Amino acid sequence: MTDQAAAAGKSKKKDLVCVTGATGFVASWLIKCLLADGYTVRGTVRDPGNEQKTGHLWALPGAKERLELVKADLLTAGSYDEAVSGCDGVFHTATAVVLIESDPQSEMIDPAVFGTLNVLRSCKKSRSVKRVVMTSSSAAVRFNSIFPSAAIPLDETVWSSIWYAVAKTLAEKEAWQFASDHQLDLIVVLPSFVVGPSLPADNSKTVNDVLHLLKGDGSLIGMLGRMGYVHIDDVARAHLLVYQEPSARGRYLCSATELEPEQLCRLVAARYPHLPIPTRLENVPPVPYYTLNSSKLEKLGLKFKPVETMFDDCIAWFRNKHML
Ligand SMILES: NC(=O)c1ccc[n+]([C@@H]2O[C@H](COP(=O)([O-])OP(=O)(O)OC[C@H]3O[C@@H](n4cnc5c(N)ncnc54)[C@H](OP(=O)(O)O)[C@@H]3O)[C@@H](O)[C@H]2O)c1
Fold first, then answer.
1. Taking Cα atoms as reference points, which of 193, 195, 201, 194 lies closest to residue 323?
2. Ligand 1 centroid, distance to 93 Cα (angstroms)
3. Which of 93, 162, 216, 321 qualifies as a cystine partner to 27, CB 3.0-4.6 A?
């Protein structure tokens, strides 16, 4: 980070910032980092009274003094007006991450696209918000095709299941258009598959994908094909860095490494020989070789933790929580 950015960062530490989707895997860790750095945080949740979903946030150091949770829903127009009012910055992480969608439009695309514009409109209205950091996904730069391998014959009963990538791509495109039309300072972080300790009491989809792998079922990780991986702490730090750096602009890919699923399995299995991690996977789709260039974030000072640390931290956490 430059001296100027470091100075700007320090002055931002008293900022009031809003985090949408506060109960989520990524948002919870981000809130932990924001509170640790001295920020005052207003998190949005759909049900502030739900102890099961919010308890871990109230247990964070600094939460009692500097955390507030307010109700907001991506699908309700104007729902974020109050939440972002008076905030200096907004971190928009909320989105619907659905395992098997029955109606992709209402379950994934609407929360992503309408929801993002809903949040951005409130930011614009607020007049206080100076920068918005949105969490997109590496799926919005890379066609993330979760399709059966050539070994499985396709017939008319099969549908392409790319809705998550479509939702993230459309939401980000709309966000850039809105930011350009309304002169809103928008930065977008595009993490690859996030691995690490999970603060919420209930595991979200990707956390469960990793847990299943560690318990012997590699089908979910295998289905993704070649994939980028990044530590949860690096994802949160990336959001903070781009918020604090005055010269930050545009999109920031956030991925430490990219691996074939069997490569990942062999690496973790060799490190944890007592876990039943499969080293041969079936039905891995032939995703073309690619790499994700995260050098923009590295230039801001982010040093990515290696995949070994992601899994060491994640496994230690699962064991501590008696999930493994
Ligand atoms: N996890 C990954 O590997 C990964 C990788 C790349 C990008 N990302 C991106 O990171 C962000 C967070 O993902 P995550 O893994 O942390 O997901 P998550 O744990 O499922 O959290 C998603 C959050 O969105 C909220 N949400 C869902 N529908 C909503 C609605 N209609 N209105 C308001 N809030 C709603 C949920 O709140 P409730 O508590 O109210 O349900 C939840 O807190 C997403 O934008 C995702 O696309 C994640």
1. 201
2. 6
3. 93
